[in-house]
Amino acid sequence: MQSRFRSDRRLTVRMGVTLFLLGLLYVAFVAALIVLLKSWVLVVVIAAGVLAAQYWFSDRIALFAMHGRVVEREEYPELHAVVDRLCAIADMPKPVVAVSNMDMPNAFATGRNPDNAVVCVTTGLLRRLEPAELEGVLAHELSHVAHKDVAVITIASFLGVIAGLVVRFAFYSEMFGGRGRKDQNTLAVLAMVMGVSAAVYAISFLLIRALSRYRELAADRAAALLTGRPSALASALTKVSGDIARIPSEDLRTAQAFNAFYFTPALGSEPGLSRLFSTHPSLEQRLEQLGRISAELGEAATPGKAG
Questions:
Q1: 280 inside domain
Q2: Is 280 annotated as a binding residue?
Q3: Number of domains in the chain
Q4: Is 80 a known ligand-binding residue?
Q5: Is residue 243 a part of any domain in this protein?
Q6: Strand partners of residue 118
Q7: 197 lies in which domain range?
Q8: Is residue 287 part of a domain?
Q9: What's the burial of 37, exposed, middle or buried (CB within 10 Å: 0-12/13-18/19+)?
Q10: CA pair distance 288, 108, nearest whole angstrom
Q11: Geometric angle at alpha carbon 185, from 179 and 172, rounded to 5°
Q12: Do you know which PANTHER family this protein is assigned to (predicted)?
């Protein structure tokens, strides 16, 4: 079912290109491992197992990692009311609603499709935002579900997970397997496996980060157009980003692994080259886009300007 969230062709193209490139990388990676390890059964079973686990259980893994729990309407009636209203406007299935008991103000969406999605907010976010601001944040998260980019990020990230696991396995095998009991050929294979896996991890990392930054801009745009209040979303962004900066960094590092799923990153990016590694565009970019949308909506609402 097509939702009423504004479709984004550029996002769709980027998701397709990212999955295609990662698919090619995945095939090359598996082929290299089969050649190096001489055991296609082991490689295929591990890869398929991790992909299946990420695809089917990503929502539960994310909720568990971020201490989220599913909440019913009786417990959080206002939160459910906002989600109900937005889903009705967007004409999309209502996701499971969850709350994480964390002071860090944030939100995220996860799930393999709109019928199996979860939207989670932290108690820190609920405590800090006004109703219109909360509506903007939830519309942003629901647009991720409607655009299906949550599922794409989940699937895309699995190659990096596989590569990272292989590097760790090879490293610990080298550390604890005993150098004296290995011949030079075995050591050379382990070194090549680690090298190939590290290269695959680096390439997939950069591809996913590039897609993640664009999808955040697409979600901001879709949420602003659905609610008609880009200024409320801009206010929420400013407030959340400012408050996160005051959260102790040690409390944020536990959440940093899930940055790609968050409304705003747990630890912000620095200017310069490090932006290549960021999961989100800068606050300035996001506010500038919302400012343009606000101006466009204002022009459209002005008599004589409608086109």
A1: yes
A2: no
A3: 1
A4: no
A5: yes
A6: 96, 110
A7: 9-299
A8: yes
A9: middle
A10: 22
A11: 40
A12: PROTEASE HTPX, PROTEASE HTPX HOMOLOG
